[in-house]
Structures are given as structure tokens and as C-alpha cells.
Amino acid sequence: MNSVDAPEETAGDRPSFRLQPLKTTHLPGKTSPSRSAGGSDSRPSYRDAVKVTANGVHDIEDRILRITGYYGYYPGYSSHRREDGSESHAETLASEASGEQGQCQSCAATILKVLSGLLVVVFISSSWVGTTQVVQLTFQSFSCPFFITWFSTNWNILFFPLYYSGHLVTTREKQSPIQKFRECSRIFGEEGLTLKLFVKRTAPFSILWTLTNYLYLLALRKLTATDVSALYCCHKAFVFLLSWIVLKDRFMGVRIVAAIMAITGIVMMAYADGFHGDSIIGVALAVGSASTSALYKVLFKMFLGSSNLGEAAHFFSTLGFFNLVFISCVPLVLYFTKVEHWGSLSTLPWGYLCGVAGLWLAFNILVNVGVVLTYPILISIGTLLSVPGNAAVDVLKHEVIFSVVRLAATCIICLGFLLLLLPEEWDSVTLRFLAAFADKKAEEHGEELTESSVHTRSRSRANGAVSIPLA
Fold this sequence. Notes:
The protein is mainly α and 471 residues long. It contains 18 helices and no strands.
């Protein structure tokens, strides 16, 4: 912008005007070529841009931006923008790489959990099948089911010592056995385990535990291992019915259907031999074992709630100790009344007895440890797989021939057991899955139509056809 100064008086008193040099040599908002690098504007000067252009670095883009007067442009802007873009791109790649690494880790953890669950399933089914088969072998020379039950329950005392040994191996912060015992005794209450709670909480569960196992062994003297294991699977239906009535759990129609299927299988199993003889007694004993097992689990959930592995180990050891102290009189009474007479201690089949007790303890440990290592549904499937496992042993070793009615009853009970494993939100999850599947099919169908239309156009162009759009 030019400036006009005030007029001056000359010798001839004639006003004269004099042009003054420009005080500003640059336009506002533009970069001055003579501005030093230490000025208020930190952007590079024109000379720097000339050097960049002279060196042939991004000269075409810089010239175009300078000529067109791109807002906010300064020479070398494109190179800085590329560097910033490269940095942001590197950050994006790093975030994507970290996200992919996290997804890979989660997938690996899920795969490891599933594989460990499958391994636990195999061990659970094998231990339960082995327990059932060894019991039947024991009955050939020693038919005393209550003594076997009492002797096997005493082995539950070893549960907590085994848990504590695992704690010492796997945990860095070591605790003394007394500290760990007191910590795990919180399952009985905040005050821990007292004599009153020991009798009050342990006695009913010990009685139900003994009845469940004793009735199961009695049923094995009347029926095959396959029939007894299949009937025992009905305890899942009884747990649902008792939880629905006592604990006011959510009503589910599919589980009612599963309970009806279990009852149908029980009736068919009893009908297989015409509702008479040892068959009906064996079915009643097996159903009684399943009922007491269901009552045990519902009462445990009501009074003790959920428990971790340490608390479960503490409870099982307490149960075994109560059995050793208070239930030991029952085998003696049965011995002196000659209901169960086993002779001298030296003639007892200690190998079979220790085998049954060890397998039973291993089954209980695997069930409780498996809940921590893998999904609980796999533990239930492991119990269910004992039915075909016992069937294979009965057919191959004992040459048992199953009737059509027994096979149908076993299949119905197993199918009902699987229906009971469905989660509570299975219906909404299924509907969402079907909706997502339908949307995916619709998208694939739309893509196929688009590809077919493109293929048709290209083929018509190749044939010389021209499409005329309608107005």
C-alpha cells in the first residue's frame, strides 16, 4: 500500500509533492523473501524453497501450490505432509499390528482352553467308566456296597492335601497349610469352620453323599453298567425341577421337555423287562441315586452357594473326615448283623477297593478342577460320555445284548440331558444367529446379482449391443 506525506512549502510558495519509497515490501499474509529465519514466522523462507526446487525435490507439486496460492502453503509443505502421513500411517500399522496380536493371543487362549477341556472330558468319562466297571468286578468276590461306599468316601480327606500341593507348585506367594485351610474355610461362613457349623453343614451333605453312592452301587448289582449310568444322567432333570421349585430359577420350556424325556426314558427302561423282577428294583435304585444327587446339589447351592477350587477341596476333605468319624459305626453294625459280612481283613480285595476309591477320587477332582480350566458344559458332556463308554465295555467284554427298548430309552435320556445343557438365553442367541445368517445370505445374493449384471453388460458390449436409457 502507498502512503502520501504532508505537503512542504518551497521558495516559490508553491506546493510540491514528493513520492516516498515503499515502507512495506510485502503483502499482508504473504511470506517476505527477506524475512530471516529467526522471525516470528517459523515457516521456511522462499530461498529455502528455491533450494528445495533446485535440488529437484517435489519441485512440480511445490510450484503448482505456490502459483495457485493454496491456503496455508509454504515451500516444502508437500514433503512435510508426506512425512506426517508416513508417521500416521506407521502409527496406524502399529495399532493394527497390536490389535491383530491381541486377537491372536485371545484365539490361542480359547483354543488352548478348548483343547484342555477335551482332554479333561476324556479323563472324566474314563474315570467314571472305570469306577463303574471296577465296582462290578469287585462284586464278584466282595458284595458289600455300603462298605465300598464308606471306604471310598474316606479317601476324600486327601482332596485338600492334594490341592495344597498344587498350590505350592503353581503359586509364587506361598501360604502355610493352616493359613490356606482358614482361607478356604470361608465356604462355611465368615467365622470359618466351627464345631457347630461342622456338624450342622456337613451332616446333611454327608448323608446325601452316602445315599447317592450307596444306591448307585446297589443298582449296579441289578442292572448293567450302561443302564445305571444312563439312569443316573436323569439327575440333571431333577436338578432343574428342584431349582425351579425351591430356588425359583427361571422357567424354560425346553428344560421341561428334557425332564419329560428323562421320565419317559425311565419308564421305558423299567418296561424293558415287563415291570417285574430285578429290573424294576434296579431302575428304582438308580432313580433314587439320581434324586439324592440332585437334592445334594440344590441344597449345596442354597446354603453354601458357589465355591472356588480351594473351598471345594476343603469341603470334600471335611466331608471325608465327617464320614470317617461319624459314619464308621454303620459298617460295623452291618457287619455284626450279618447284612454285609466280609470275613477277616486279610481276605478283603484291597486292590479292587483301592482302585474304586482312587478312581472315584480322581473323578471328583477332575470335575472340580475342570470347571476352573475349561467350560462347565464340557464337564457335563464328560459325564454323559460315560454311557457309550460303559456300553462299549459291556458289549465287548461282558457280551451284553441290548434290546431295542433299552437302546431307545438310553437315547431319549441322553437327548434330554443334552437339552438341559442349553444356556438360558439360547432362544435369543439362536434368533440373532439366524437373522445374521439371513442377512449374510441376502448380501451374497445381491453380490451375485451384481456380478451377473456386470457379466451380462460386458457380454452385450462384446456382441455390439447398445443399451439406450429410457427418459
